[in-house]
Amino acid sequence: MVIKPSGPNNGSYHKNTSNVIKKTAGVAAGGSKTLQALTSAAVVLPGLLLSSAQAAEGDHINFQYSRYQEGKRNLFGIPNSLDPIRADVLHGSGVFSLTDRAKFSFNYTQDIWAGATPIVTSPLAADPYNRILENTPDGVTVTGASPLINPSRGVLLDRNLTPLHRTDGSQDTRNVLVLASASPEVRNQANFRLGYEWDEAEINAGAGFSLENDYRSSFGNLGGRMDFNQKLTSVKFSAGYTSSNISAILDHDAAPYLTKTAFSDQIKRRSDGAEILRDERRDWSFNLGLTQILTKYALIDANFGYTFSSGYLENPYKAVTAIFVDPDELNNGLSTPILGDVRALLEQRPNQRHQWAFNAKYIQHISPFDAALHLNYKFTVDDWGIHTNTFGASWIQPLPGGWTLTPRIRYYSQDSASFYQPFLISEQNFSSQAFDSQGREIWVDALNPDIEYVRDGNFNLIDGTGNPVDESILNVQPKTIPFDAEKLPNNFSSDHRLAGFGALSGGATLSKEFARGVTLQAGFEYYTRDSSFKLGGGGGSGFADFDYYVANAALSINMEAMGGPGSGAHAHHSGHDKSNHKSSTHTHRHQQPAGLMFAHMLDNAGDFMVGYRFMYSRMGGSLLHGSHTVDDQTIVNQGCGNEDLCAFAPAEMSMRMHMLNLMYAPTGWLNVMIMPRFMDMEMDLRELDGRPPPTPDEHQHFGGHTTGVIGDTLMVSLIKLYETSGHRFHAGLGISAPSGKTNLKFRRTFRTDGGAVHYGMQLGSGTWDFVPSLTYTGEYHRWSWGTQVSGIKRMESRNKSGYRLGDLFQATTWLGYDLTRWLTANIRGVYTLQDRIHGEFNQFNAGIGPMDFPSNYGGQFWNIGFGVNAAIPSGRFAGNHFGFEWLQPVHTDVNGYQLDRKGALTASWSYQF
Amino acid sequence: MGSFMKFKQKPLFVIVLIVLFGATVSGCAHVEAWERGHLAKHQMAVDPQPLQNHIQLHNYSSREAAASTHAVDGGGGCGCY
């Protein structure tokens, strides 16, 4: 072998080499040159070099977790107790060959984000924050500030309309962001792609959707690639269409203070009082690209993109401060400061946008280091007036032992949109009294504002025909004329993403390829936005500067490189594989129910297994006390302890969990495994009949709420205790690390602290837990069976939030039958006993319903499980194992007052190699 | 509309540029199949770290106003924060 590419392509290279020999044998001539041609020509195979990176890899599966964390915004000394934005992103994707030429790929992404985001920009002189005062032993102190988007005191301006400092009257041209916090929100995106390759061309088609509570989009695309000139040149093209529906729930704290007249047709009021803005947008995109090999050591990739967007292109949660100035007062000839009326208008962007982007990447191999230098430049322009320039560089350095280190740096600069303004000043009144042609004030009935009245000289109300009207049967008020929208600009936004600024970011990625196609990657990036970094200077939006970091960890499994039974690259593993197949006919078919953990052991020293398990469970229906349903009035009186009355109860709750499972057998009798868990939970509340009357400060819960995403991490050793033909005992000793948060809080509303989210919606136990298990498995011919006892013992008396979850004991027994050689059906019974929660939140919790009280957790639960397991025996997907199980509750006996259970689904995939 | 007309010239110009550029380089460069060993290495791939790259582009697009050459792929959601 002359050339042995390093990195994850290793396996596909081997595989492809054998194909190449057939394809190029007729072309090559001459001894050593033939060998050279044969071995080197591998690289010109379809998909290996000139197509996108995703197509270039063989069949593979990826998991990635990343965290985006912003730093605190600068509020010029105003106390800021709000948590900055954080987003957790889970990603899973896979590429599978359906035939030699057809490929299927899928992507799934889940984002959960929460934190404080700017809703409006305001002159600092308008002082758009209300200090939150708290009584402490040292006296009254300021603990935070809540936003005011309509500071009722207004702002003082000089005669040139420059804001003046409220206390000393000096000019103050500083602006400040007005932040509001958001409770966690979830986005789910799924898409797939089908591709078909020829020797010198490829076509592909993809589609997908992205779902959020307030934003739903679906998209499709078509693309292709053609290679020319002995694959020195490759041309790519694609077209895509996205259709999005917006149904934004306007912030119930902010909505009453927003001026929404420009969108009154789109805004509807829901029965619970929430205001919903509905609209649509469409995006068409086109892409044309070229990849060109320049020399033996360099290539260039250039792309041109065009996007046309139309419809509602605003951000429904952003408003613009508009200061209304009375023109009569402004022109009264005096020089004293005047008072501006500070209002907030929903932002208005153009309803069309044309964008062009050009991107070029130059890639140079640096032979002395066997490294690659990637230089990137991007220029974009649009008809909103935004020009951007991006310069990027990265250095990809392979290191001994399968390591790769990639440092990178990026600089970005953009001009401001033509309609970007931190705030507006309009020389008119926000609203003014209406007068008729004779100069008389017009009055209207509040219930029937189309009929106008005036007052005669004796202040008696008269109608349009001059007849007196009985004022006592009407509810009259002066008629006001709203501001003239024509005097405002057509478009305005103070979203700082449309301002002029520059940004510098840098980071590094470290990856390690383990044996047999498993690659772990970890990356970090730090990003800082700075108005003064803008090319040519003059960003002028320094008040919006911020920074963020992103950390990510990824696991890639290249299924062709793993040497599994279906990979075609397993010649050197054949002995090993045979022993695997042999053992699999005896004790080792992995046919335990999918929802059961710690029941499967790897047989041979050196075996690896990667697995993924998805679990969904739902609670709903009636509330139970013990094992009996209970009426609302009883819950009101007894569900919230001895001192409080309940006002709300859960109507429904669902939980989704994604669990990764990495398992390794260092010896034949010991397995070690690590299982990171990611989860999200959703709960809908309902008001209880007979609840106590609401108080002015009550915690409002419109609809549902959500939490996520990192749960606790399990680390377990499985130890084989005894094995004889058809029977095996093994023990599991596990530790659960408290990586899941237990201090999640609801957002603060203007007046009240949200408090801790219910115990059952926190993401972990918060304590280090001991997780032992003892498992017996047996099998005879087509039958398999087993039994397991397991438990969770909390090893600390309190977590840092002041409580601990109850200990747990579980016993289960199952029976399975092989329907075919590869398909097993099983049934099992499960009994679970869990103690109540001990201790309680050491921070504020609203205590509005049974789910906020520790005695309403735990109980005894009986389930029956129905499952099937499939182990793909041969063909392209050989070695993959799939399992499904439905757990049906048969009897429930809860502690205290809890929602009934509706069942749980488990789906699992694993691959052993 | 005026600004739109002005920009309308640009894509055509860029397309012509790409095609000309491609034709020129492909005419002069001559790298035989067996000379492409370095080019086949993982670090020389156009997108050697697609997972990280995807995350980065998503973050940039939610914080910056630049157009994308990946817009065709769709998705990404509202980014309303």
List the helices and strands and how they pair.
The complex is a heterodimer of chains A (913) and B (81).
Chain A: H1 10-24, H2 31-40, H3 53-56, E1 60-70, E2 86-97, E3 102-123, E4 129-136, E5 139-147, E6 155-157, E7 175-198, E8 201-212, E9 215-228, E10 233-249, E11 258-259, E12 267-269, E13 275-295, E14 298-311, E15 319-324, H4 327-330, E16 338-346, E17 352-366, E18 371-382, E19 387-399, E20 403-414, E21 423-426, E22 431-433, E23 443-445, E24 448-455, E25 461-462, E26 476-478, E27 480-482, E28 501-513, E29 518-530, E30 547-558, H5 574-584, E31 608-626, E32 628-629, H6 632-638, E33 648-667, E34 670-675, E35 677-687, E36 704-710, E37 713-724, E38 727-737, E39 769-780, E40 783-794, E41 803-804, E42 808-818, E43 823-834, E44 838-839, E45 859-871, E46 880-912
Parallel strand pairs in A: 11-16, 15-21
Antiparallel strand pairs in A: 1-2, 1-30, 2-3, 3-7, 4-5, 6-16, 7-8, 8-9, 9-10, 10-13, 12-13, 13-14, 14-17, 15-16, 17-18, 18-19, 19-20, 20-28, 22-27, 23-24, 23-26, 24-25, 28-29, 29-30, 31-32, 31-33, 31-46, 33-34, 33-35, 34-37, 35-36, 37-38, 38-39, 39-40, 40-42, 41-44, 42-43, 43-45, 45-46
Helix pairs in contact in A: 1-2
Chain B: H1 2-28, H2 50-63
Helix content of chain B: 40-55%
Number of strands of chain B: 0
Question: Structurally, how many domains make up the residues of chain A?
Answer: 4
Main pleated-sheet profile of chain A: 16 strands, antiparallel, barrel
Strand content of chain A: over 45%
Largest sheet of chain B: none
Strand content of chain B: under 5%
- The helix count of chain A comes to 6
Q: How many runs of DSSP E, i.e. beta strands of chain A?
A: 46
Structural shape of chain B: flat
* Helix/strand order of chain B: HH
CATH architectural designation of the largest domain in chain A: Beta Barrel
Q: Determine the N-to-C terminus distance of chain A.
A: 26 Å
Q: Please give the share of residues in helix of chain A.
A: under 10%
**Which structural category fits the helices and strands of chain A?**
mainly beta
